[in-house]
Design brief:
alpha/beta, 8-stranded parallel barrel, 13 helices, 18 strands, binds pyridoxal-5'-phosphate, polyamine biosynthesis, De-COase2_C, Ala_racemase/Decarboxylase_C, phosphoprotein
Length: 460
């Protein structure tokens, strides 16, 4: 069964009846007694568990291989290892991270079609066999540097409807697949399947259907050439929150019938996917503090009525994390981040047009171009939800601004559920639904011991 799991998470259980949101409040209250008021995260690992259960319910035929690049936090990766997911690694360092948690190489796919030679050798030396390719040059490198690779041909998809397009960089066009497979045959390589990635922020679920149909075409060619094609990898791009145009269950409602049509359950093809944001986005809440503020009066305003003067000014808020830090997702992931207010506004509270800026001295460091917020003061807090994907993973300390502290939390029932899955595998659907009715949880500042074997890894 699952081999990796934490023996020890060094953070407290949520107290009985408390949620991650209560921890946010508590941290805000603690910080507000001082002038420190640094930005911080609260990460609810119970949310990662919920996502896993949601995945297994919606896509029972598909084993998730979590895309580590999305958030390589050791605690998150350990949690997922305990839950029995596989991992999509794109580099030697990501492979090393996952293997340091005791994850078996068979649970890793090296899903980078363009790899450095030394890193292919590293994968070979560490037993990682599954890897993607999309070109002839890559095949030649693998033939030279890997002892027994199981190759997966990454095909291009129509990602014109995705927010983050990937097929401009990766994926072989359908018409070149036969040539690539023939070349693999000549080189004596073993091709086991097909992968694709529809791009992230996909707004049309039919993209998956077309890609799955294309994969079937390539399977036929592979079979014809004598490969034993038995792996389909449908990639990532599944939304991490419900705050999106195309919801997770709307996508799965299209994927499942497409799989049943092109890869029916009796065809003996193992199906995997590479979700990244799906697992982590909503687990993280980022809390930032207003460090500076400007009021820009509009000279042309015709309103002389002070109280109704919502149009006569624009507010600029400066906060202590920005696009060089956690909000790099705005630049790299085309994210749109809007704050939720920490203090509920009064019903008659005036809302002003505002912009929100990061702390660095760069004009590019803007988080929100325009939104409506009340008149707040230096020292007030803003909360950003759904901040787990492509945030902490790529943030820098440009201009000397440090990364926010990270506080992990989990409720005791959620923790017990993770342990149970780690030791016994997924529960029957009927049992699983009970978990989230139980809001009760207990215990405090404890160092949490995982049971005994086979769970070995350790989280600090
Ligand atoms: C980035 C990436 C993923 C994860 O994408 P999400 O949109 O976070 O699900 C999966 N597979 C590959 C090959 C990737 O490059």
């Amino acid at each position: 069964m699952n081999t990796a799991a934490p023996t020890e998470f060094e953070f407290p259980f949520l107290e009985e009846g408390f949620t991650a949101r209560d921890v946010v409040e508590q941290k805000i209250n603690e910080s507000s007694t001082t002038d420190e008021r640094d930005a911080f995260y609260v990460c609810d690992l119970g949310d990662v568990l919920k996502k896993h259960l949601r995945w297994m319910r919606a896509l029972p035929r598909i084993t998730p291989f979590y895309a580590v690049k999305c958030n390589d936090s050791r605690t998150v990766v350990t949690t997922l290892a305990s839950l029995g997911t596989g991992f999509d690694c794109a580099s030697k360092t990501e492979i090393a991270l996952v293997q340091s948690l005791g994850v078996d190489p068979s649970r890793i796919i090296y899903a980078n079609p363009c790899k450095q030679v030394s890193q292919i050798k590293y994968a070979s030396a560490h037993g990682v066999q599954m890897m993607t390719f999309d070109s002839e040059v890559e095949l030649m490198k693998v033939a030279r540097c890997h002892d027994n690779a199981k190759l997966v041909l990454r095909i291009a998809t129509d990602d014109s409807k995705a927010v983050c397009r990937l097929s401009v960089k990766f994926g072989a066009p359908l018409k070149s697949c036969r040539g690539l497979l023939e070349r693999a045959k000549e080189l004596g390589l073993n091709v086991i399947g097909v992968s694709f990635h529809v791009g992230s922020g996909c707004t049309d679920a039919k993209t998956y259907t077309q890609a799955i149909a294309d994969a079937r075409t390539v399977f036929h060619i592979g079979d014809e050439l004598g490969f034993n094609m038995d792996l389909l990898d449908i990639g990532g791009g599944f939304p991490g929150s419900d705050n999106v145009e195309l919801k997770f269950e709307e996508i799965t409602a299209v994927i499942n019938p497409a799989l049943d049509k092109y890869f029916p359950a009796d065809c003996d093809v193992k199906i995997i996917a590479e979700p990244g944001r799906f697992y982590v986005a909503s687990a993280y809440t980022l809390v930032v503090n207003i460090i500076a503020k400007k009021v820009i009066m509009d000279e042309d305003s015709v309103s002389d009525d002070e109280d109704e003067g919502t149009n006569d000014r624009t507010l600029m808020y400066y906060v202590n994390d920005g696009v060089y830090g956690s909000f790099n997702c705005i630049l790299y992931d085309h994210a749109h981040c809007l704050p939720v207010l920490h203090k509920k506004p009064k019903p008659d509270e005036i809302m002003y047009p505002c912009s929100i800026w990061g702390p660095t001295c760069d004009g590019l460091d803007r988080i929100v171009e325009q939104c409506y917020l009340p008149d707040m003061q230096v020292g007030d807090w803003l909360v950003f939800e759904n901040m787990g994907a492509y945030t902490v993973a790529a943030s820098s300390t440009f201009n000397g601004f440090q990364r926010p502290d990270l506080h992990y939390v989990i409720s005791r029932p959620a923790w017990q559920h993770v342990q149970q899955i780690c030791l016994q595998g997924m529960p029957a659907p009927a049992e699983e639904s009970r978990l989230f009715e139980v809001s009760a949880c207990c215990g405090q500042e404890s160092s949490l011991e995982m049971p005994t074997k086979p769970c070995q890894a350790r989280v600090v």
